[in-house]
């Protein structure tokens, strides 16, 4: 309480005493006085009260602490005693009254000692008794002023804070200036403004410079530059009002609210896991092998960019070295984050597979090998089924042509020719019955045995007429040789055609649907590879004077007078009546091996040695409608069933693949192609598999000729 | 009463039978570990038969192959359920009796005539063998492959009228005279082609003769069925085709005539033609009613047709779905037809329920691993069926894999027994083209010639060599 009063008093004093002179110190009495002070602290304080009252009265007379003359108890001499100095900011800390005079040293030096220092007289200051923790707690509970006390290390005891200290604490808490005497609202002291304080005398005696009244030359030059620009029209003084000059404010609520989705929230950084902890569980710590592996891997390949480390305390954790890198990558993440919400498509891969009907619903189609007709191990290059679907002729490379029943496989007739059989084909007519065998450069026309008499007569008169038709005006290099009808038997060919020599093997024979024309393709490379023969006129002609590329296959269109010619890469479609090229089909196949046209005439399938099968929609495009790559080796033969919606392809991999191929009359619906069955059973011999396949008319049966010398019938 | 349990799990079982060996209707407790052999022993003991008879057992229509417990486990039948087990005399394993070698394929065999085998071969010849494998006679009846052959019943002893069909578009009636058994040295076997039947414009596939021997049916690839009688006309009913190509045929025919040393066969015209099939007719048979008025035929157009021969109309049609039929046979009862088709099945069709409209579901389907080409049912005459009624459920099928299978229509899952023919030939050259079954003798004809097997219940009088 006393000190508070004194503080206030001293405040008043300090207000006035800015330039208060330091109190005089009497050097003579200094040492003595100081010694006395400690002993007579309590007395002094008691006397102070009186002093204050005296001071107040004499305040005006004397500034500063006044010495008091007292009679010393010890010496009996009068001495001057100064009042105690306030622990003000002005005061010297050295004047503080502390019993312990050890100074500002670490107090733990005295931890082991019974005293805590020495007083001014060199006597030990004993350590005050301190209670245990319970006492301290009880003190804090019992003493209401305990919370305003602090531990004084110098005295080793709790001291209640003084009012000034509490006031300083309060000011610091309230963000005020801790100096209570500071007044931020002092009245300003005018030094230069106001009456009588103006500057009367000039600061220098220099005359006024010329620039104060002469117009600036540089300004004039600048202005003249602008004027000249205005005159020359480089600067338009009054710019026409543009749209941008419209008022810049508008009613924001008039606009339609934006339909754009709200901007996406930034992607959230990944939350740390246990592994990122400074003190992770043991199981997260990497083993030495894992650590070595982590260090061995490239930085980009690491699964995570840190190794879990264990620290016993958080304060031991070093600075994070990757901080900049991490912040940078985070910025990159934000910068590169997608600005649109992308809906992740959850698509079942199976739903992308086109919906195809199940093969079992597309029955009948051949599924098994019903029987096999051996050809004594010779490669069977060609096979053909009679138009009534009852007989098969097959020819092999040793020159044997066999005719057998489809259902039983019993050979009923055999012909042997002195050369390789390249092709056999039945005449598609039903009023006559014969087939053509292409043996090297000859075509042999053979009448099968056991024919009804009427058909036999018709066939004989067709192939060996009694009176020959007039020879053509231009003699053809193809010779037609027939034996007399009466002398003809089924053992020998009734008619033979000699293709021009060196034209090579007749590798393909194809009939026009009416059975009057047949076209042959020879393997020779020269121009005379393709011949069209007309039975009724006994005349052969080469339809192409010049063909680009070597012709692989030819085909008659089933309904129109069109003619397909397949070279190695392209299929050309000619109109025979108008003798012009209709279109060129680009299959994309490197080397075409086989070709067949759908019975409707609108679709063409082309097989290639490069394992591809192309389906052309002739109405649609020159490019394939569909390319099927199901075989593992080169395709050898493709064939459409004449009545069933089936086609088959055979390959050098020894397999035959059956497809369901339904075409629709309307031009809008695409053909439906369903793979049905892979028939395996032919052996691959010398890299050759199934060389030719033919469907049986009227039944879903397939006849296949293989390089292993077997001809097989596949039944449904 | 009859408790046969020996600590094992057992099933209550009631035995039924259609054989003349019935058991009293009572429950037996049968151990689950019992097989056919123990069951058969049980039946034999219970009946106290003088001579033990092997039996086969049908559990709910299936022939028991493993133990009873295995069957129950497979079917999920509980232990408490009473099982009805039907038993019948089991089929003895077939035994090969003999083989009749042929140089060419044999298309058809008939063993309905006791003591002889008649075969039709692809070389156009008809051959007669006796039971001692001796070739009695060869008749070069056809100029092309013969496809089918039937012995017309009712011929006198020693003289057999044989009708055969061929690829040469005719069927022929051939009279073969064989020495009678009582006087073997009296006559040399000879044959004479009496008549040729001219109707078809495509190879013939089969012939049939009715029981009385008065009518003949021919089926052909040209979808026609011809009706003929067996009377031999005095003159040609069909004029000889006077054609350019006659030379060849005349030459051949002359050769035939020279070998047979007989006048040229008369050319017969059909009495009627049955036209309804749209594709090849593969088989025609007479009905079982013995009056020769009904006929059944099957063809590649997936139909089985019933014909009224008198009126020459098709009375009903069974249409199957894409099953080109290769062969047809009637069950001994005559109520259902068995048809083999090229989709490797033999289907049973109920002829009584046949309608001509919708697709007819088959009663039973026998699955084969190869194309079944021929069907034979056991002979239906009284002497054969007297001993056993189980034969009416049996049939034989021959397939292109060279296996002849014996089926029981009550158990269609798998064949009762099977035997392989021509095992010395390669697997692709064992096609069976015809089987015929008469009185325990089964003739199997095909690619490898003819083999004769004995199939049947128990031991029968069989004049083996």
Written description of the protein model:
- Among the domains of chain A are: 1-97, no CATH class; 128-178, no CATH class; 364-715, Methylamine Dehydrogenase, Chain H, CATH 2.130.10.10.
- Chain A contains ten helices and 35 strands.
- Chain A has 716 residues and is α+β, with helices and mostly antiparallel strands.
- The longest helix of chain A is centred in the N-terminal third of the chain and has 18 residues, at 41-58.
- With 465 residues, chain B is mainly β.
- Chain B folds into two domains: 2-89, Phosphatidylinositol 3-kinase Catalytic Subunit, Chain A, domain 1 (Ubiquitin-like (UB roll), Roll); 95-454, YVTN repeat-like/Quinoprotein amine dehydrogenase (Methylamine Dehydrogenase, Chain H, 7 Propeller).
- Chain B is 9% helix and 43% strand.
- Chain B has four helices and 35 strands.
- Chain B has helices spanning 36-47, 68-75, 246-260, 382-387; strands at residues 2-3, 10-17, 27-31, 55-59, 62-63, 83-89, 95-100, 106-110, 116-121, 126-130, 135-139, 146-152, 159-166, 170-177, 190-198, 204-209, 215-220, 224-229, 266-268, 272-275, 281-286, 294-299, 303-308, 313-319, 325-330, 336-341, 345-350, 364-367, 372-376, 394-399, 403-408, 417-420, 432-438, 441-446, 449-454.
- Chain B has a six-stranded mixed beta sheet, with helices on one face. In chain B, strands 12-13-14-15-19 form a five-stranded mixed beta sheet, with no helix packed on it.
- In chain B, strand 9 (116-121) and strand 10 (126-130) form a beta hairpin.
- The longest helix of chain B is centred in the middle third of the chain and has 15 residues, at 246-260.
- The radius of gyration of chain B is 24 Å and the shape is elongated.
- Chain A binds chain B through residues 363-364, 367-368, 370-372, 374, 388, 390, 407-410, 412, 449-450, 452-457, 460, 485-490, 698-701, 710, 715-716, and chain B through 105, 122, 144-145, 167-169, 201-203, 221, 241, 243-248, 279-280, 300, 321-322, 324, 326, 342-344, 370-371, 373, 400, 428-429, 431, 433.
